[in-house]
């Protein structure tokens, strides 16, 4: 058996480590804070010690690509990269990994730019039911990145750590062999590691957000909210990009007066409500979105990063989380420009959606967002004309029912697709539970 | 398959780790790589009240040659030992490591953890027993050394007391005139062995000075026998011919197998089948090790 290893790779993976774990002393089921880098995104979780990395990834960070089979280290379904080496996520308690760098199958490639191993698995029909595929991909990534140019006859034995019950081993071995031949110097690094929002059903989230993580008390949330929060936008492509330009027959000065007054401006944003001024251009707020039976209520933080009368420009970064585990982040730029007939208002928004909300797909989310900005422009016009909050506050859910109406057919189709059409009895009955309220 | 709740501590000093364990009144367990312990917890075969994670304990990540021995401290992971040049000095350990679990387990599993867990079919305990490596145990009363052959006292049972932490193992470095062999048979690569052998042969010139045979997976612990006499007579009868030597060895080894292989057998292999595996593997590996000792080469391929 060959024991040679690409030592350069080993050194590089060691360099990637974020830092050593911190000392801990926690009672049974007392949450332990764990800092991780997951697919390039920093994440801070507070979990009882017995929670495994697999549970943390799946339940708390929404990364369900890591599958669980036996949960005692035999089947290899949950194989992920930890600090540059493949490991079983079911045999690691998340609390052991404070400061570690984790790459899951979600980080390996992008839907439009797959990793060569993923391409090769597809080409060779190396998956049937697909359950073992994440495990095989991560195990073979580990193999080819540490042992480039491995002898073909060694590959079956090296892949023995993952089980396929469709008995597709022949095709899996072919896929890995071909990738190995095509990348004699080692396979490319994972191609989908970047800052992005991570949200699971059980709470927990990427770092940088105030509150929301499991085990965080309300006091701690308040503390977090009262500090300046750095809003980190994902590096990945936004879920939705909206660009809406509206010509208003109102002079620039009047429009700017609305944009200049944060409280007034907030009343123009559909569903938005300003709840607190944290100072230093930071605000907390709520945003409600109601689309047919779906009602989401995001609480979060907004930070006005640019505010310039000269250029008529305002830039707002915002992020919020819904109790159901949906998360949104937005980068919004408003530019008001004087024209012959009045003012041209341009809104550019990059919206990032995570969690179940993201399953609605780009098109529908884009349509809704666009309509929201059109409403916003109308409200600004009203407020600019009257100098007061718009009379039909855009925040009222009724305003959005209009949007929902125009999209009803499409929503029904999506609901059928994601299996929510008959309601969802699995969710708890909290007062803010949108699905239950929707009846 | 979720572990029962446990308290979790991760101290930075060995003294604190030892005290945490001692203070848990027998309800504590050391967590290093966890690759043997976590499955036991997941199946709730064990419900320790407290896990003492020694990941951050200072000084436990050392892998170093100290003249006549290779010291592997408690937090040194198997994959690191597998690929570190320092391991060249202990060829038997290098030969055995690729057989330990899978790549995905060796990345987290530690050498010392495998010793502390002491599965009778595990590879690293067999290597330790064959070389009679010295195991360091640390407790609130201090540090002591236990020879590996005295360390394993039964299935998953060792000389470790409830207040002891296995902090390091020292493998003797190979010297000139030594040759080694290692082999096992498992139902698939990475499974625990049905039977396996670790072999050390030392020669002076052409004379067999010492031959040690350790078998694993065949009893409740690794079993070690001095087979110098058997090897020496087989060598002289075969006139230094490797092929004839391999053919001569099964006969004396078959007698030895009666004593060494005492497992009752299971669904995967009866006692007699394991005895046959033992005879075949040990004959083959003794011949290889003898050849390597004569030629001064301890590579993978003779």
UniProtKB/TrEMBL annotation, chain A:
Keywords on record: 2Fe-2S, Iron, Iron-sulfur, Metal-binding, Oxidoreductase
Annotated region (Disordered), positions in chain: 1-29, 419-439
EC numbers for this chain: 1.2.7.4
GO molecular function, one term: 2 iron, 2 sulfur cluster binding
Top-level class of the enzyme under EC nomenclature: oxidoreductase
CDD domains in UniProt: fer2, SRPBCC_5
Name of the protein this chain belongs to: Carbon-monoxide dehydrogenase small subunit
Organism: Halosaccharopolyspora lacisalsi
Automatic annotation (TrEMBL), chain B:
Enzyme class, UniProt record, top EC level: oxidoreductase
PROSITE patterns per the UniProt record, alphabetical: FAD_PCMH
Pfam families (UniProt xref): CO_deh_flav_C (PF03450), FAD_binding_5 (PF00941)
Alphabetically ordered keywords of this record: FAD, Flavoprotein, Oxidoreductase
InterPro entries the UniProt entry points to: CO_DH_flav_C (IPR005107), CO_DH_flav_C_dom_sf (IPR036683), Diverse_Substr_Oxidored (IPR051312), FAD-bd_PCMH (IPR016166), FAD-bd_PCMH-like_sf (IPR036318), FAD-bd_PCMH_sub1 (IPR016167), FAD-bd_PCMH_sub2 (IPR016169), Mopterin_DH_FAD-bd (IPR002346)
EC number from the UniProt entry: 1.2.7.4
The keyword Flavoprotein is assigned to this record: yes
Signal peptide per UniProt: none
A molecular function GO annotation: FAD binding
Entry-linked SMART domains: CO_deh_flav_C (SM01092)
Domain FAD-binding PCMH-type positions: 1-176
SUPFAM superfamilies membership: CO dehydrogenase flavoprotein C-terminal domain-like, FAD-binding/transporter-associated domain-like
The name this protein goes by in its record: Carbon-monoxide dehydrogenase medium subunit
Taxonomic lineage of the native organism: Bacteria, Bacillati, Actinomycetota, Actinomycetes, Pseudonocardiales
